[in-house]
Amino acid sequence: MSLDFLLQRFHDLPATRSLIERLPSAGKRIGVGGLPGSSPAVLTATLARALPQRVFTVVAPTPADGERWLADLQTLLGPDTTALYPQRESLGAEEPHYELAGERIETLEALLRGAVRVLITTARASAERTAVPAALEQARLVIGTKEERSLTDTTQHLAEMGYARVPTVTEVAQYSVRGGILDVYGFGMATPARIEWWGDEVASVRSFDLDTQRSGDTLDRVTVLPVRSEQLTATGSVGSRRSNLLDLLPTDTVVVTDQESAVQREVERAWADAAHHLEVARRMGEEPPPREELLIEPEVWRARLTALARIAVSDAETEQRFPLAPPEHIDRDLKRLRQIVTQPPPTVILCDNEGQLERLEELLGTDRATLAGST
Length: 375
Hints:
6-stranded mixed sheet, 7-stranded parallel sheet
């Protein structure tokens, strides 16, 4: 059964509503505690559903943690808008496992064409450099102040990305032009943006209010993701360059860090392990590329991460706590489980498979607890 009711209940919590109202902006961080078990995934799914125009990226310490997040979020949100960007199996320049290599490029393609709303990755994957085909780079539009670009080319680009030209921007996937000013509200953007040109130079980028149409805060740059999947292949660009995932994320991405200190330790460990891996390769007569071509330095990684909006869960320093307690450990004590489901508050049991769900329906009945199957 659908777990929409669970997300709605979580959305109604005062702590959730408070977090939505003061969601961190780019360069800001908020610590969130009181989230036992899979409740961080429930919170992330709730935020993604409440803010469908935003992109959320979960950075987990290890591959096992990433797989757990993926399973939880795909159960809550479905597989279509949730994807995993896995780390390479080895620290070499090439991925020996074609399945992993394919999954990485498929996830990047889906991210850069605006199909992914929640991306899950690991600490090491977030620090790796990867070859990104030039065609994928064209699947998004990044506009920053003081850069040279034609307003005419920019509006044509937006039209090719599926954006509708309107007199006044009132919702996502629209843009308007008045003289040398472009208003656009795209997927991946926290707020609509007002971009002013002086000749062929971007003079300023500011947010604006949809209701009043008044300009707001100054922005350094904005990232606009496409509306549809047919992407700019007619330009015929070829080749690739090595990029880092944090560079490819939309400017207004919200990063959810799971066990923040553990994530940082994993990045530092990967940097140290890469040095050892390269030394062993050289002793064997190989000529591996320098580790700077495989990974970004931990200091650079921290700078790129802290430039994004961040929500840190399962961490000691918290500005927002949720009044949640971990469920009681039942193991196989069916008598105790029956006692729990007959008492308030209401009980929801997420089953691993259909067989488990059917058996619990027989033992407990559906009038005492809400039983839901994992997808």
